[in-house]
Design brief:
Length: 189
C-alpha cells in the first residue's frame, strides 16, 4: 500500500505539472484578450478556469498521497509551511510555496466579487511565480525520475509552452481594453 501511495504521489506530480502549465498558458493568452470566432473570450476563460480546477484536484491528490504514505513522514503542515519538513526540507519547501500560491490564486478567484480588481490582479500576478517554483520542486525532489529522458522532455516542453506564451504576449499590440484600464489606473484608482 505504502509503495502504491508513493507512486501515486509521483505520478500525480507529473500530471499536475503539465496541467499547471496549460492553466498558466491559457491565463496569459486570455489576459492578452485573445479571441477568434472559434475561440471567443468566454470559451477561453471557461477553459482556463476548468483546467485550473483540474490542476488543483491533481495537486490535492499529489499532496494527500505523499502525506498519507507513512514512508517520508510528511505532515499536513509541511504542505503549506515551507522549509519545515524533515523529508527534503528545501525541495518540499518549494512545493509548499507553489501550493500556497495556487491556493491564494484559487481562493481570490472564488471571492472575486468581494475583493477589489486590483487585489485580485496582484494575487493572480503572484500566481505566475508558482510555475517556476513548482518546476524546480519537481526536478529537485524527483530524484532518479528527474533524469529520465521523458521527464526531462516533459519539463522542457512545459518551459517552451510558458516562454512562447509570454513572448507572444509581450510582442502583441495591447488590446484597447487594456490600454483604457492602464490609463484609468494611472489616473489614480
Ligand atoms: C503546484 C504544486 C506542485 C507541483 C506542480 C508538483 C509537481 C511535482 C513533480 C513534477 C514531482 C516529480 C515526480 C517524479 O519525478 O517522480 C513531484 C514530486 C513530489 N512532490 Fe510535488 N508538486 C507540487 C507541490 C507539492 C507539495 C505541496 C508537496 C507536499 C507534500 C509535494 C510533495 C512531493 C513529493 C513527496 C514528491 C516525490 C518525492 C520523491 O519521489 O522522492 N509536492 N512533485
Amino acid at each position: 500500500m505504502g509503495q502504491a501511495l508513493w507512486f501515486a504521489s509521483r505520478a500525480t506530480g507529473l500530471v499536475t505539472l503539465p496541467l499547471l502549465t496549460l492553466s498558466v498558458v491559457l491565463g496569459v493568452i486570455g489576459a492578452a484578450r485573445f479571441a477568434t470566432p472559434r475561440w471567443p473570450r468566454f470559451t477561453l476563460a471557461a477553459l482556463h478556469r476548468n483546467v485550473a480546477l483540474l490542476t488543483l484536484l491533481f495537486l490535492v491528490v499529489h499532496v494527500a498521497s505523499a502525506v498519507i504514505d507513512p514512508y517520508a513522514k510528511i505532515g499536513w503542515l509541511d504542505t503549506v509551511l515551507p522549509f519545515v519538513s524533515v523529508y527534503q526540507p528545501f525541495w518540499l519547501g518549494l512545493g509548499a510555496i507553489a501550493m500556497d500560491l495556487v491556493l491564494a490564486t484559487a481562493l481570490t478567484s472564488m471571492a472575486r466579487s468581494r475583493i477589489t480588481p486590483r487585489t485580485w490582479r496582484a494575487v493572480h500576478w503572484a500566481g505566475y511565480a508558482c510555475w517556476p517554483v513548482a518546476v524546480v520542486h519537481g526536478l529537485g525532489i524527483g530524484g532518479a525520475d528527474s533524469s529520465l529522458s521523458w521527464v526531462i522532455a516533459l519539463n522542457v516542453l512545459c518551459a517552451i509552452a510558458v516562454l512562447a506564451a509570454l513572448l507572444w504576449r509581450l510582442r502583441r499590440q495591447p488590446h484597447p481594453d487594456l490600454t483604457a484600464r492602464r490609463s484609468a489606473t494611472v489616473g489614480g484608482r
